[in-house]
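Please check this chain.
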Amino acid sequence: MLHEKFEKEVAPRLMKELGLTNVMQIPRVVKVAINMGVSDKDNPKVLEGAVKNLANITGQHPVVTKAKKSISDFHLTEGDPIGCKVTLRRDKAYEFLYKLFNVVFPGIRDFRGLSSASFDGRGNYTLGLNEQLVYPEISYKEVVSTQGMDVTIVTTARNDKEGYALLKGLGFPFKD
């Protein structure tokens, strides 16, 4: 649905709005990376729950991330499992974004939009969600521990202005 909207409505509008001459210059969504950190590394059920929740949310099996270095202040040793991540591309990325824009954000209480300051300078956008319960696929009974997640939208935009125009065209709820 969102991919069709991009092809039919957003891409031609972006070409005019940004003054592009070639169709290949139009910014596109390359991938969506979702990362979920686990705070309680000593309890294996928390990591299992995070993996299960992320799989339910994205429809794809997550990869367990491990610590690269040992950090004594955090009681971390190299190789400890500390979270999980999923990378969505093509249609799965657009489906995830559609669900994020039209189901998750409207379901958050007192949601007034997202800041446009979270761009990285190259047209990619990162946002954080406080808990996984905002997704309809997750029931409260299944959650071992509430965890937040980071969602990074990677685009082919050359700068933040192009990335903003792309996400705004797709229906991203920015505070303006």
